[in-house]
Specification:
The protein has two domains: about 140 residues, Aspartate Aminotransferase, domain 1, CATH 3.90.1150.10; about 230 residues, Aspartate Aminotransferase, domain 2, CATH 3.40.640. It has 16 helices and 14 strands. The mean pLDDT is about 95. The chain starts with a helix and ends with a helix. The strands form three sheets. Strands 4-10-9-8-7-5-6 form a seven-stranded mixed β-sheet, sandwiched between helices. The protein has a four-stranded mixed β-sheet with strand order 1-2-3-12. It is an alpha/beta fold.
Length: about 425
């Protein structure tokens, strides 16, 4: 059947509706490598503009690190461009197993299995280890990829209020009769930047004989004293049953992810997780780069220490300027604007001031929770942050939001 004018009109109307509501997302084209300073074309066809990047997941500034680039080139030369296969057929090289062992050591777990991405890891893990006799109890703000993974699983799904341990305990009591209970949370919540109460969650899971699953994508490499993650920060290394994380953020910024944890659970993923069984293996060039990342991080905490200082500087500057921020101490610093159109316009004006930061709005965040999510990097120098702060303050003054309350902003711009 042809793609008729009627079909086309349906989608054109839906896209126009998104534009009219201020919910339409426009991509920017980067003409440089990922770094604190990037060259961006926006809108399409416009002259390329050099801007400060305040919204990348490049937390440790490793995306273009010369040692990692060199390791990636060596991996390309010695192991080729791609595997052209899945792991269990002919897609496993020695370096894949080497990376699994290094990640296991880094995270303090029993075993690790690589996936093409953390989204794939989250899509495959629950179906592989649970049945309809089990229950998944998730924090209500878990990442969308976790939600998608839970939808693919036959186990019952329940939720608890965000970081509310009393409510979690009620749900554990409610599902006491289930064969297996899995509590599911992010380590650092990607939209708000707050951290899970993993020490309290571990205690509850031990009390009620439940497994604990944590997605550490926004913490691996830089949260905790040596950057192992939220479980290190909370003093529960070795007590988390399942960890998923990505190599596409702090750990190099390329791609790939993993499930790490109890060896039996990891082996179940190796046997049954569909994204693992039916997706090509991570490319050797990426594996080689991540191995170098872990080597660098094992030698020094200089980068996570610098990131911590940069984050404190950035949060203090925005607060003193009069912006409303989400509370937290991670490199994710959301500037709350509450209105989707305001977030989009604010972002466009920041770009004109040489600051690249994107507006987030429904459905990425709930209605009335629109924001500019800023992300600090060890690649930033203080002069980057000072200039970015100047841009934020100038645009904030334009829209008359500095020092205003949430209600005052909503009264002016709506929800």
């Amino acid at each position: 059947m042809s793609y008729s004018d009627k079909n086309r009109a349906i989608y054109q109307a839906q896209l126009k509706e998104l534009q009219d509501k201020g919910l339409f997302k426009q991509e920017r084209y980067i003409h440089s490598s990922q770094a604190a300073d990037i060259e961006v074309e926006f809108p399409a066809g416009s002259p390329i503009k050099k801007v400060i990047n305040m919204c990348a997941n490049n937390y440790l500034g490793l995306s273009s690190h010369p040692e990692i680039l060199k390791a990636a080139h060596e991996g390309l030369d010695s192991r080729g461009y791609g595997m052209s296969s899945v792991r269990f057929i002919c897609g496993t090289q020695d370096i894949h197993r080497e990376l699994e062992k290094k990640v296991t050591e880094f995270l303090g777990t029993e075993d690790t299995i690589l996936f093409p991405s953390c989204m794939d890891a989250n899509a495959g893990v629950f179906e592989a280890i649970l049945t309809d006799k089990d229950v998944m109890i998730s924090d209500r703000l878990v990442h969308a990829s976790i939600i998608d993974g839970m939808r693919l699983c036959s186990a019952i799904h329940d939720t608890f209020k965000h970081s509310n341990m009393e409510h979690l305990e009620e749900k554990l009591q409610l599902h006491a009769d289930k064969r297996l209970k899995v509590v599911i949370t992010d380590g650092v919540f990607s939209m708000d930047g707050d951290t899970a109460l993993l020490d309290e969650m571990v205690a509850l899971c031990e009390k009620y004989d439940a497994l604990l699953f944590v997605d550490e994508s926004h913490s691996s490499g830089f949260i905790g004293k040596t950057g192992r993650g939220t479980h290190e920060k909370c003093g529960v290394v070795g007590k988390i049953d399942l960890i998923t994380t990505t190599f596409g953020k702090g750990l190099g910024g390329a791609s790939g992810g993993c499930v790490s944890g109890r060896k039996e659970l990891v082996e179940m993923c190796r046997q049954k997780a569909r994204p693992y069984l039916f997706s090509n293996t991570i490319a050797p060039v990426v594996v080689s780069g991540v191995l170098k990342v872990l080597e660098i991080l094992s030698k020094s905490t200089d980068r996570r220490d610098k990131l911590e200082k940069n984050t404190a500087f950035w949060r203090k500057g925005l607060t003193e300027a009069g912006f409303i921020l989400k509370e937290g101490d991670t490199p994710i610093v959301p500037v709350m604007l509450f209105n989707a159109s305001l977030a989009q316009n604010f972002s466009k004006d920041l770009f004109q001031e040489g600051v690249y930061a994107i507006g987030f709005f429904f459905p990425v965040v709930p209605n009335s929770q629109a924001r500019i999510r800023t992300q600090v990097s060890a690649g930033h120098e203080i002069h980057h942050l000072e200039k970015a702060l100047e841009g934020f303050i100038k645009v904030g003054k334009k829209y008359e939001i500095l020092g205003k309350t949430k209600q005052e902003i909503i009264d002016r711009y709506g929800m």
